[in-house]
Amino acid sequence: DAKTTQPNSMESNEEEPVHLPCNHSTISGTDYIHWYRQLPSQGPEYVIHGLTSNVNNRMASLAIAEDRKSSTLILHRATLRDAAVYYCIPPPRSNTGNQFYFGTGTSLTVIP
Amino acid sequence: DAGITQSPRHKVTETGTPVTLRCHQTENHRYMYWYRQDPGHGLRLIHYSYGVKDTDKGEVSDGYSVSRSKTEDFLLTLESATSSQTSVYFCAISESPLESQYFGPGTRLTVT
């Protein structure tokens, strides 16, 4: 099964860029990597996903390593509202019932 | 925001009583999911549905049953609640298992 590894926690100063890493050395060549985040007392929300090249949207950027064994979620200017748990999600597998596995993610603290 | 509601949002019940949680969507998505979230465990999938009357087990399905008689509603039932089922329950929807999931606001269940 594809698995991911993320740091348990990270800190960032407000208005500075944040780079959240994720290792996913076992994904296959056609697997998308998804990122979600969960704000305090809320359900998770989709952030971004990508396959090979870097991806951008209004929330964040996703940089995927050339060998696809790792990716980095980039928040260009952290705000206090970005304090959340960020999940790097491996692709579902048919042998796991096509289930997303969320794990425990990275808890991001933003310091004013 | 995706149209997903959960009811009730909070519930306190006694051990041994039956409990039903409801998830309602207005997006006409085929897939619906029930997760539970506990400290230190992240989100864990309980059951999911891939169509009306089509459901399958997730990672932590023991003690739970589900039903989906209409596209828009997915019910989670605890036949006889136990204290270990005290948790926050999230419903999610998606168009396919590889697509992004959209989450409801959650139901906080306390079993005393």
Tell me about this structure.
The complex is a heterodimer of chains A (112) and B (112). Chain A has 112 residues and is mainly beta. Chain A is built from no helices and nine strands. Chain A has strands at 9-13, 18-23, 33-38, 45-50, 55-56, 61-64, 70-75, 84-89, 106-111. In chain A, 36% of the residues are buried. Chain B has 112 residues and is an all-beta fold. Chain B is built from no helices and eleven strands. Chain B has strands at residues 4-7, 10-13, 19-25, 31-38, 42-51, 54-57, 65-70, 73-78, 87-94, 102-103, 107-111. In chain B, β9 (87-94) and β10 form a beta hairpin. The relative contact order of chain B is 0.33. The interface between A and B is medium-sized, with 20 and 23 residues.
Q: What's the count of strands of chain A?
A: 9
| Discrete helix count of chain A | 0
Span between termini of chain B: 34 Å
Tell me about the largest β-sheet of chain B: 7 strands, mixed
Concise description?
Chain A is an all-beta fold and about 110 residues long. Helices cover about 0% and strands about 40% of the residues of chain A. In chain B, the strands form 2 sheets. In chain B, strands 2, 4, 5, 6, 9, 10 and 11 form a 7-stranded mixed beta sheet that branches. Chain B has a 4-stranded antiparallel beta sheet with strand order 1-3-8-7, with no helix packed on it.
What descriptive keywords fit this protein?
A: 112 residues; mainly beta; five-stranded mixed sheet; B: 112 residues; 11 strands
How is the secondary structure organized here?
The complex is a heterodimer of chains A (112) and B (112).
Chain A: E1 9-13, E2 18-23, E3 33-38, E4 45-50, E5 55-56, E6 61-64, E7 70-75, E8 84-89, E9 106-111
Parallel strand pairs in A: 1-9
Antiparallel strand pairs in A: 2-7, 3-4, 3-8, 5-6, 6-7, 8-9
Chain B: E1 4-7, E2 10-13, E3 19-25, E4 31-38, E5 42-51, E6 54-57, E7 65-70, E8 73-78, E9 87-94, E10 102-103, E11 107-111
Parallel strand pairs in B: 2-11
Antiparallel strand pairs in B: 1-3, 3-8, 4-5, 4-9, 5-6, 7-8, 9-10, 9-11
